[in-house]
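User: quick one, fold this
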Amino acid sequence: MMTENQPGAAPVAAPSAVCDRACHPGSAPLKTAGRIGLRRWVQLGFVVGSILTGVQFQRFIASLSDPAATALAPRPAAVDAWLPVSSLMSLVYLAKTGIANAVHPAGLVLFTLILISAVALRRGFCSWVCPIGTLCEVAHQAGQWLFKRNLRLPKPLDVALRAIKYLLLAFFIVVIVRMSAADLSAFIHGPYNRTADVKMYLLFAHLSRTALFVLAALGVLSVLFKNFWCRYLCPYGALLGLASIPSPVAVRREAGLCTGCGACTRACPNGIAVHARASVRSPECTACHGCVDVCPQPGALRLSLPRSKRALSPLLYGLITVAAFVLVSQAFRAFGYWDSDTPRELYRAFYANARNRPVER
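Assistant:
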């Protein structure tokens, strides 16, 4: 077992005093606190938005349980973002038929936006937007604070475990793509998919012992290892990683300015050997700017377009990301393609049946 303060590849030694100071953990945060803080604020904003969505969805669920209520509380359409499998099915159905269904329209819009952003700007969703990604990041930073380091798996085991998320992704894609348009339509418009959001709520509201154990195990592993869920198990991240491979945006290294100190490699939360590459094309890169921020040599690393000396700064990247989510969601809301057309009576009937079933332990 290795630790995160032991880089996978031996960096070229650099006698520079500037590099010596930057490569030690005590000095790098002083240089980059402002930039790192910007991404933290964006992450916090999306976390707060997710919490508010969850609170409103809980009110919607509570209104379902009140038989005397003449009207249900508004259902927040943004909860569709937590149904990626349903959204993938809707996207495949759209590609096969040209029909954008209205069962979980916000999910289809956001899923498509996230895919397009991965192609255009790499996997920034994972490190700037995704609340699960933020939670995993906080967890491994807590591990660093508690134990002064994170653990690293031996490379052969690390590579083998990373295959899990791609196998899960392959399973979903093969099953969904092979479905006929008629089968997709039947599932998408059926009661199971229409109430998938309520099923998800009930799963976490009434956790079984098995589910609680799995979540606790993932929590512990996320504290010990950097980005355990994202790195090894998340099929959504695997999809975005593959989509980001042709992206024109990448971290680029100027060999003439690089001292080979390895600070960038040590800073990468996904274990990419940044200091050994002319450009980072790995599907594991999440455009977090961590490697760029700790680089002691101005201009040696940058996130940019090909043949461009102009860096895509964290400020610009953050503004583009936030603007895309705000403007796209508001535009589709204005066009009337945002809220689900699922009858509220179906929600109420399903919830009543679910409450009468015994909770599995």
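User: anything notable?
Assistant: Strands lie at 2-3, 151-152, 250-253, 279-280, 301-304.
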